[in-house]
Amino acid sequence: MNERYKILFEPVKIGPVTAKNRFYQVPHAMGSGNDMPKTRAAQRGIKAEGGWGVINTGYCSIHPSSDDRPLPFSRIWSDADIPAHELMVKAVHEHDALAGIELFHGGAYTPNRHSRLTSLSPSGIQQRPPELDTMQITSPKVMDSQDIKNLIQWHVDATKRALKAGFDVIYCYAGMGFLPYHFLHPDFNKRTDGYGGSLKNRARLISEIISSMKETVDGKAAIAVRISTDELLGFKSDNAESEAHELFELIGELPDLWDLKLSEWAKECPSGRFAESGHMRPYNSFAKELTSKPVVGVGWFTSPDVMVKQISDGVLDFVGAARASIADPFLPNKILEGREDEIRECIGCNICASCYNGGIPVRCTQNPTMGEEWRRGWHPEKPKTKSTDSNILVIGGGPAGLETATTLSKRGYRVTIAEKEDRLGGRINHESILPGMSSYQRVVDYRYNQISQSELVETFLGNELKKEDVLDLGFDHVVTATGSKWNPSLLNEKLTPFNIGKMPNVLTPDDIFNGAETKDEVLIYDFDYYYMGGLLAEHLTNQGKKVSIISPFPSVSPWSFMSNEVNEIALRLHEKNIKTNKEEIIQIIEKDHVVTKNLVSHQTRETNYETLLIVGNRVPQRGLFDELISEENLSDHGIKSINNIGDSNAPGAVVHAIYSGHLYANTFDEGAEESDLKFEYATIQ
Ligand code: ADP
Ligand code: SF4
Q1: E-assigned strands of 567-630?
Q2: 20 to 30 A from 104, CA-CA: which of 325, 337, 457, 541?
Q3: Residue 677: pLDDT above 80?
Q4: Strand, helix or coil at 70?
Q5: Mutate which of 303, 352, 530 to test ligand 2's pocket (most atoms within 8 Å of Cβ)?
Q6: What CA dihedral angle connects 181, 184, 189 and 194, to 10 degrees?
Q7: Ligand 1, closest atom to CA 648?
């Protein structure tokens, strides 16, 4: 191990328990909840195997009055929920890590759409959930003294169950818009009894919860508190520098650990496009001066040097991570073994966040095995060894081809990559130079590093293969990963794209990537759901062009809501003075103007353009694959199989291409079609 990382492997005491190192997987939802306990246990267990010292559950509801359906929360509502948690605790303990559970009551935040219990709150004030703002149609009830007693008792009951399940760290969640936090927050707590008014009174509930939980565990587990600090730091206090400072002066010594976070998820977990590693330091750095208890904080830590700095500067005791542990569950062990160049560094795309928002197990762009540990039996570091001595030709060195070659070579197969361009990377080479996108280059860097160290991989750049070349080369298996192209297209009234062919002064993103010049005024017609339209608008504005956008959707890049980016994109367009006309489709393109139709009012209007850039749909480049499979005598050329993967099969986000490459590499020798491949499933996963 590199000496300068030694500090990361020091054990740290958390009340009655001790973490073996400072790598702390903070509570974060994995999208598997209680419905998929085996998936969840395998997801968490793999991180323990990879060396994380503490592994926590995601938010775990303590009572049906905190029901967050349809989002995939965990629960510990009765003893019947204990066995599902025991699976995870066992998986974590097997690798000498501590298991933590984040007990949670959502209060006004949870709409209780399934349980149909009334939502609870200090003063009847609604919480607008930042990620799903259409859910709350009733106001929460004002809690009376019995409700307060009940809430404390539910924490006690859940703590007893958590102890039975074997957890070592048990949380009280006083962050975001959840119930204990609302009691702290002067905008939500307007009470005039002993639980409202001064901060001391507003902190009374959380103090009582922590004290009751501590009494319940009686030294058998640690009690942690997760708290949002950003707003409290902004609230003035008569007694201290801010209400956050005052709170720590009041109860800083009460729990065994403080876990610091922000008041909104999109702010705390912004995509890498809009944040720097360590971005939470301004909200974290006050705490350690005011408590002797260990402090954990997050902030998109992906590199060991940033982690060390937070510890040695005295900001944190534990390096908190969600995304770094998803992208590379083996990050701690790689640092321990001096293999930090092998870390699969998180790119900050927030595809993982989108899975939680979509109610499915977390998937990851960088780590295609995440969420498939139990169902398919995949391991991020140890794919199963080869079953034959076949050699494989991979055509195309984009994300799909690179992942295929990386995983095949780890399995022990001989692989040759042929890439038409003079460097590997495919679409990443174009996209990572756009504003804020440089971290996407890590997709290539990790895989390039792996294959360049492998004797089993040969790479041929500047090598565009044709059918005859492939037939002559004599490989056992051939896989085409030849990518996709942006289509010059419009939408019809059903919002279905149709091709319009090449037109003068009408470009696609590929034209821009290939160096096409635009005129000074660029009109972007963006009906891609994801990031490309807004990104190119920003890129061209940075080059001095005057850019405006027409979109059929109510917001630009609407799917980016799922990756916590949509508001940041809107802000960036606003800051750059990029005018957006929403809910419009282009119906006619003339030489110097387009005719648009408003999808709400149905009115048409004309807009002039000098260059029209259409960011629409992509079409697969599957010509080579189609030619190859139409060849009748493949076996005469020694070819046993031909497959088409990634964007040349079905264009998607980078996560889809990587997954497709991994799926092929892990299963091609099973001789089955994708749809026939077996994976574990059960009513309860
Ligand atoms: P994906 O996301 O599916 O990996 P990309 O578009 O990023 O797709 O990458 C596809 C890669 O395939 C590009 O780098 C492209 O240059 C390369 N390619 C396309 N056709 C050929 C071919 N006939 N021979 C070699 N490389 C090819
Ligand atoms: Fe990081 Fe993206 Fe993976 Fe999430 S999905 S852990 S942001 S690489």
Answers
A1: 579-581, 584-589, 593-598, 604-608, 611-615, 618-620
A2: 325
A3: no
A4: coil
A5: 352
A6: 130
A7: 3
What is the atom index within ligand 1 of the atom nearest the CA of 481?
A: 3
> Which residue out of 365, 417, 419 has the highest number of ligand 1 atoms within 8 Å of its CB and is therefore the one to mutate?
419
Q: Are 356 and 71 in contact (CB under 8 A)?
A: yes
Question: Distance from first CA to last CA of the chain, Å, rounded?
Answer: 38
Burial class for 515, CB neighbours closer than 10 Å (0-12, 13-18, 19+): exposed
Q: Find the mean pLDDT for residues 144-154.
A: 98
Peptide bond into 70 cis (omega under 30): yes
Instruction: Give the full edge-to-edge strand order of the sheet including 391-395.
Output: 457-460, 414-418, 391-395, 477-480, 641-644
- The per-residue pLDDT for 136 is 63
Q: Angle of helix 654-667 relative to helix 399-411, nearest 10 degrees?
A: 30
Number of H helices, E strands in the chain: 23, 30
In the prediction, which pLDDT does 127 show?
80
Structure tokens at 364: 């990851």
Q: Is the CB of 396 within 6 Å of ligand 1?
A: yes
pLDDT 10s digits, 503-555: 999 999 999 999 999 999 999 999 999 999 999 999 999 999 999 999 999 99
Residue 15 C-beta-side C-alpha neighbours within 13 Å: 21
pLDDT averaged over every residue in the chain: 94
Cβ of residue 343 lying under 6 Å from some atom of ligand 1? no
- Determine which helix (DSSP H) or strand (DSSP E) holds 333, and give its type and residue range: helix 331-336
Confidence of residue 120 (pLDDT cuts 50, 70, 90): very high
Please return the burial class of 463, using the count of CB atoms within 10 Å of its CB with bins 0-12, 13-18 and 19+.
Answer: middle
**How far is the CA of 593 from the CAs of 443, 587, 617, in angstroms?**
40, 11, 22
Instruction: List, as one string, the DSSP characters of 88-148.
Output: HHHHHHTTT-EEEEEEE--GGG---TTT-PPPEESSS-----SS-TT---SPPEEP-HHHH
Alpha-carbon gap, residue 266 to 567, rounded angstroms: 9
% of the chain surpassing 90 pLDDT: 86
Interatomic CA distance for residues 273 and 604, integer angstroms? 35
| Tens of pLDDT, residues 289-305 | 999 999 999 888 888 99
Ligand 1 close to Cβ of residue 651 (< 6 A) = no
Alpha-carbon radius of gyration of the chain: 27
Pocket mutation for ligand 2, best pick of 47, 302, 346, 560 (most atoms within 8 Å of C-beta): 346
Decide: 365 in ligand 2 pocket, CB within 6 A: yes
Give the Å distance between the CA of 204 and the centre of ligand 2: 38
Q: Which of 223-232, 273-282, 349-358 has the lowest mean pLDDT?
A: 273-282
Strands 295-297 and 318-321: parallel
What distance in Å separates the CA atoms of residue 662 and residue 658, rounded to the nearest whole number?
6
- The pLDDT, as a whole number, for residue 281 is 84
What's the pLDDT band for 685 if we cut at 50, 70, 90?
very low
Model pTM score: 0.95
Q: What is the mean pLDDT of residues 375-396?
A: 95
Which two tokens mark 446? Answer: 């990790």
Whose Cα sits closest to atom 24 in ligand 1? 464
* Residue 401 CA, ligand 2 centroid: distance in Å: 19
